[in-house]
Amino acid sequence: MSFSPPGPSAPVAARLRGVASSPVREILALTEKPGVLSFAGGLPAPELFDHEGLGEAFAAVLAPGRAGRSLQYSTTEGDPELRRRVADRLSRRGLPTGPEELLITSGSQQALTLIAAVFLEPGDRVLVEDPSYLAALQAFQLAGAIPIPVPCDEDGIDPDAVERLVAEHRPKLLYVVPTFHNPTGRTLTEERRRALAEVMERTNLWAIEDDPYGELRYAGEPSTPLAAIPGAAERTLALSTLSKVAAPGLRIGWVRTPPSLRTPLTIAKQAADLHSSTVDQAATAHWLAHVDLDAHLGRLRHVYRERRDAMLEALPSTLPEGSTFNRPDGGMFLWVRLPEGRDATALLPRAIEQQVAYVPGAPFYATTPDPRTLRLSFTTHAPDEIREGMARLKVALA
Ligand SMILES: Cc1ncc(COP(=O)(O)O)c(C=O)c1O
Questions:
Q1: How far apart are the CA of 305 and the centre of ligand 1, in A?
Q2: pLDDT one-digit tens code per residue, 290-327
Q3: What pLDDT, in 10s, does the model give residues 275-288?
Q4: Which of 86, 133, 181, 252 to mutate to test the pocket of ligand 1 (most atoms within 8 A of CB)?
Q5: Which of 113, 119, 138 lies closest to 23, judged by CA?
Q6: Whose CA is nearest to atom 8 of ligand 1?
Q7: CATH class of 19-49+295-397
Q8: Model pTM?
Q9: Which part of the chain has CATH 3.90.1150.10?
Q10: 221 within 8 A of 94, measured Cβ to Cβ
Q11: Pocket around ligand 1: residues whose beta carbon is below 6 Å from it?
Q12: Quick one: fold of 51-290?
């Protein structure tokens, strides 16, 4: 979408010129019309937020005697109690972590921006999955870097292709979402995680492991964090967030860094915003201290599993013959490929006409899009609504 605002044009930096506004945000605006059943947004279900627990947490940290501290400036690295609780959780999930290894960020999105500021010069290359998380592509492009897509299949990114592309492009970084990937829902197999760690060690390749969805597993065994595998461990920045586990409005994320990056990232964070919101961090730490997180996650997993299953059950009779789709063991997304000759972007207006929405896959590709692909999110509607939405989608795609 382009328009010429009135008045003189501002001397905007060249690095912004190549960065488009996210087409997904524009699509989401279209899908927010009343009556549309949207499978487009990657939103957690708001009815599953722990309103009560979070309300109590904010009340507690804003109570007399505590409010002064909660409303004051704070340290750049983040609330010590929050860092301790996050470190404990990561350690229990198979990634031994001390609080000093963590920098609290304003969502994991900010961690991407900070890492880009620390690593990337204009013209640098970053290897990314093909397709990849769109806002990560934006963060790298905003730093002037060039994303290089790496071939992926059902099992995630191809480590041999990574090695080949490292030799060809000498990238500064690899960016991966190995568990319940956005947009495809795919998970990198254990074998490939180890192969990728070996490639990283052989080629001294640094990686960002972005893991917002790992806790949302509905089947199978937990995946081994890339950051816990020797070879990768020494050169991986591990990001995660409470956005999908607690609530995205808190804007609490973090990056776990190898020692050499702690000071550079802290300086980048200081320059960006001094520190993340003191009161939000304090309330989140209080919430984590009082909630039974495993029981809360158990509820999320139960509800999301039912929703995923309702969508998977309806898909074979929804999609035109010759379509394919995957069956992720967790996360929020399914990935669909329509038959030869179909274009998911061109079909979207017909879907909106039928009061149903999805996100076309094309914007998630760094260079050459596959126009036949689309992403469906199953988290925000109850099974009955999902069945109704799939019936509408069938009409739109017929
Ligand atoms: C892969 C990935 N990384 C990062 C984010 C950003 O999350 P946050 O809310 O923590 O900024 C998202 C959000 O959807 C995501 O899917």
A1: 20
A2: 999 999 999 999 999 999 999 999 999 999 999 999 99
A3: 999 999 999 999 99
A4: 133
A5: 138
A6: 107
A7: alpha beta
A8: 0.95
A9: 19-49+295-397
A10: no
A11: 42, 107-109, 133, 177, 182, 210, 212, 241, 243, 248, 253
A12: Aspartate Aminotransferase; domain 2 (3.40.640)
